[in-house]
Design a protein that fits this description.
Order of helices and strands: HEEEHHH
Helix content: 25-40%
Radius of gyration: 19 Å
Shape: elongated
Structural class: alpha+beta
Number of helices: 4
Strand order of the largest sheet: 1-2-3
Amino acid sequence: MATAKRPAVRKVSGKDSRLAKAGVSGYNKPKKTPNHPTKSHVVVAKEGDQVKTIRFGQQGVSGSPEGSARNEAFKARHAKNIAKGKMSAAYWANKVKW
């Protein structure tokens, strides 16, 4: 009586290396990067099987209150890129900084 062999199952040890390298606690969880020379935040974005490290936001610049002219101008200027979803820097800048 022949027994069928099971395919080898590869175990993933710990977290994705991109999470550790970026210093974030999980996927789609942005973190401030005060020591980065140009970008203020980093996130390891995941949508389906696609994973991407995204740095966003100008260092030293803060967003404006909701409804201000500066806030509305940012959202209008970057509307196409914000609509692209989690895999774009504009989406994360809009969500975190603005």
